[in-house]
Structures are given as structure tokens and as C-alpha cells.
């Protein structure tokens, strides 16, 4: 981030000045008035700049946009939250639920599970479900008498799957004797491994949970959802469709309890329900502008660079024309790192030496995806939706102008 490149942006329109009492807007010089729409669009194109700043993880993106109005920035933010379509579970049909979690509560938890699928490959649901607008998931679990019994059933089921081509008779016997227990997984065992991998005290916690004086508890996770391909979905999605996170806890069951349902996932937007929103957060802030109106030297410079505003300033050797006896001074290095802290104002000398403002047409966006879509895809989709909205508005204006012209001709 080049501090000199921020100078021109703050000359037109004004800037937000940071003071001890808060942030105050100070008007600046007005830009040239546009004579027509073509000139306005040209100025917008010439002034609009966009740049990717950071990608902290695969689900996070930080970028900057300059040369736009706050209405444009807020429209982009709202579209990312509420209008970019995704696929989420909409209806849950319970066949059996004897757990202590009520149907409505469990259905709500299931609907919030993010699914790893691209909504652009699905049609919008209108009247009836088809393989083009609906995904089907099944879940059928039953808690056995003990963890050992569940592990034994799971082991037998896995052996059966490996030799299913030449062990059809054994498969039929298993289905008849187990009556659904073939679908039981080893959630308790896997939970032990997760605890041990994530927490040094996990072994003790697991030992307490699984002590002999406690009843056996079965954990139902999002990975227990089994995708049931419909129509040609098996060919359209050869890698399968699964929840983004397979360790989301849905319910805890005691021996003898059963959960059996069918869930239908459909395309929707965050304006319909929050479960369709592709982002966990989508926010922006104004770009800071940092100026040293007076030079800061030596110990005070070290405090400013390392204590009050770390990352914003850097220490450089003093030049020959600087005051005698000084060795280092502070220099603005990265305004982007400024968090708008006003702690430096506690020092009267620094308060009079540092000036912090915010540029009103330069925005820093932060996007955090929930995993259904990559943040760069979300941004691209949001921009495309904004373009379509503008085109739709232009068509409506053209239609209205034609109607007005016809009315004028009829009146004359």
C-alpha cells in the first residue's frame, strides 16, 4: 500500500477526520460536474480500481475498491449476504424420531448444514421436485446397546461392502438380522480420535465420558447424511455431494433411540432464509490515511511504531539535516494496518504529530465464506447480480420512456 497514492483520493469530496471525540466528516473540494451520463460513466470507469490485498485462508478474502460511492459498496455487501444463491436443505420428512431432540429443532439444525455443491448447476424450484432442482439426503441411525455393539455392526457392514459382489447371501442375512443397524457408524470411536488430536486433555475427557458407570451415548454427525442421487445426478456429480463439514453434531442418542428421515435440498437466497447465505461475514471499512504533521524521533518513534500503532509505521535512520542527537525517526509504512486506535492521543506530543483520517471513496472489504462457495466466486456472483440489476433498471426506464412518448402523441 503506497501512502502517496492516497493523496489524490482525499482531495475531492472530503474526508473523515479521527479525533478524541470520534470521527467527523470534513468537506473538501468538489469535483467537476458531469455534463451527461456518458461523462459520468467515463469518470466512474477511469476512477474505479479494485485490488486483492489478502487471502488469509481458502475461505477468506480481503480486497479494496476505490473510486466508488458508499451506496455502491453497501449494495455489493448486501448482495453477497442476501442475493447470491446457494443450495441448502429446505424440507425434512421424518419417518421416525425417538430421540430427545424435537423434530422442529432437529430440522432447523439440519437446514443450517452447508452443502458442498454449486447452486449454478441447479434450477430454481417452482412447482414440483425434479432431479434438476432438488437434492435428496437420507439419514437412518439407531443407537445400539453399547459402543462395542455399534463397532461390531459397523465392521461387519464394511466387510460386507468390500465383498458385496460375491457375498450376496451374507448381505441378505445381515439386513434381515440387523434391521437397519448396518447403517450405524463409529461416531463414538471417531469422536475419541478427534478429541485426542485437538486437545491435550482430551484423553481425560473421553475417559470421563465413556466410564463404565455412564450410559452409552451415540453421537449423530452431519457425515451421517447420505446423498441419494436422483435421475442423472450420479453422472452430473461424479464426486458426490457432501456437507462441507462432516463433524457438525446434530443429536445425541441413548440405546434404543432412532432417527430416520429424508431431507430435500433446494436452491435459495439469503433473503429467503439465513441458511442460504454463502457468507459468515461480509463487511467493509474506509481506508485509513495516516500523516505525520511533525517528525517523531527516537524513543517516541519506537513507542508509536511498536506500542500504539504496530505495523503502520516503520523506523528509519535519521538524515543529516535532522536535529542533532537523533538516530531514528518514524515513517508511515502501511496505512492499511491501522485499526483506528486512538491510544496514541494519550501522549500530547504524539497527538499533535500524527493525523489520522479516512478516505470516503476507498473501501476495504472482508469476505468470509461458510464453505459452500469460494469467496472469489461469491464476489464474482455478486458483481454479476449487480450488473443484471442495473440492466433491468435501464430496460424499465426505456420502457417507461416509450410509454411516455406514446401518451404524449395521443394527447397531442
Features:
alpha+beta; 11 helices; four-stranded antiparallel β-sheet; 33% helix; 3 domains; flat; RNA Polymerase Alpha Subunit, Chain A, domain 2; six-stranded antiparallel β-sheet; Gyrase A, domain 2
Major sheet size, sense and barrel closure: 6 strands, antiparallel
Report the portion of residues in β strands: 25-35%
How many structural domains?
Answer: 3
Helical content class:
25-40%
Plain-language structure description:
With about 400 residues, the chain is α+β, with helices and mostly antiparallel strands. The protein folds into three domains: about 1-85 and about 280-290 and about 360-385, Gyrase A, domain 2 (2-Layer Sandwich); about 85-275, Beta Complex (RNA Polymerase Alpha Subunit, Chain A, domain 2), CATH 2.170.120; about 295-350, no CATH class. The chain is built from eleven helices and 14 strands. The strands form four sheets. Strands 1, 2, 3, 4, 11 and 14 form a six-stranded antiparallel beta sheet that branches. A four-stranded antiparallel beta sheet has the order 5-10-6-8, with helices on one face. Strands 7-9 form a two-stranded antiparallel sheet. α2 crosses α11 (about 375-410). The longest helix has about 35 residues, at about 375-410.
Amino acid at each position: 500500500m503506497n501512502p502517496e497514492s492516497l493523496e489524490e483520493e482525499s482531495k475531492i469530496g472530503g474526508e473523515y477526520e479521527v479525533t478524541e471525540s470520534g470521527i467527523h466528516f470534513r468537506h473538501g473540494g468538489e469535483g467537476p460536474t458531469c455534463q451527461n451520463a456518458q461523462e459520468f460513466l467515463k469518470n466512474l470507469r477511469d476512477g474505479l480500481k479494485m485490488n486483492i490485498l489478502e487471502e488469509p485462508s481458502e475461505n477468506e478474502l480481503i480486497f479494496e475498491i476505490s473510486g466508488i460511492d458508499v451506496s455502491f459498496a453497501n449494495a455489493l455487501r448486501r448482495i453477497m449476504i442476501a442475493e447470491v444463491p446457494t443450495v441448502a436443505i429446505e424440507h425434512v420428512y421424518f419417518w421416525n424420531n425417538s430421540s430427545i431432540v424435537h423434530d422442529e429443532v432437529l430440522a432447523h439444525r439440519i437446514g443450517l448444514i452447508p452443502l458442498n455443491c454449486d447452486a449454478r448447476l441447479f434450477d430454481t424450484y417452482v412447482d414440483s421436485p425434479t432431479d434438476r432442482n432438488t437434492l435428496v439426503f437420507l439419514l437412518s441411525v439407531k443407537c445400539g446397546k453399547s459402543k462395542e455393539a455399534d463397532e461390531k455392526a459397523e465392521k461387519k457392514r464394511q466387510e460386507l461392502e468390500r465383498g458385496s459382489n460375491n457375498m450376496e447371501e451374507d448381505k441378505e442375512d445381515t439386513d434381515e438380522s440387523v434391521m437397519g443397524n448396518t447403517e450405524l457408524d463409529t461416531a463414538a470411536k471417531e469422536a475419541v480420535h478427534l478429541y485426542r488430536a485437538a486437545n491435550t486433555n482430551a484423553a481425560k475427557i473421553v475417559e470421563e465420558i465413556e466410564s463404565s458407570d455412564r450410559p452409552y451415548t451415540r453421537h449423530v454427525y452431519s457425515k451421517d447424511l447420505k446423498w441419494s442421487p436422483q435421475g442423472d445426478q450420479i453422472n452430473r456429480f461424479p464426486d458426490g455431494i457432501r456437507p462441507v463439514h462432516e463433524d457438525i453434531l446434530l443429536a445425541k442418542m441413548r440405546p434404543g433411540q432412532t432417527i430416520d428421515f429424508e431431507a430435500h435440498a433446494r436452491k435459495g437466497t439469503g433473503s429467503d432464509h439465513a441458511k442460504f447465505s454463502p457468507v459468515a461475514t461480509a463487511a467493509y471499512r474506509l481506508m485509513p490515511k495516516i500523516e505525520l504533521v511533525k517528525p517523531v524521533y527516537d524513543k517516541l518513534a519506537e513507542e508509536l511504531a511498536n506500542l500504539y500503532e504496530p505495523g503502520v509505521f516503520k523506523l528509519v535512520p535519521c538524515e543529516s539535516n535532522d536535529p542533532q542527537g537523533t538516530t531514528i525517526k518514524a515513517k508511515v509504512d502501511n496505512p492499511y494496518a491501522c485499526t483506528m486506535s486512538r491510544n496514541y492521543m494519550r501522549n500530547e506530543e504524539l497527538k499533535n504529530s500524527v493525523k489520522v483520517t479516512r478516505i470516503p471513496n476507498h473501501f476495504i472489504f472482508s469476505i468470509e465464506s461458510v464453505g459452500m462457495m469460494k469467496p472469489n466466486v461469491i464476489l464474482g456472483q455478486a458483481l454479476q447480480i449487480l450488473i443484471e440489476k442495473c440492466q433491468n433498471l435501464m430496460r424499465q426506464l426505456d420502457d417507461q420512456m416509450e410509454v411516455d412518448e406514446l401518451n404524449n402523441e395521443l394527447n397531442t
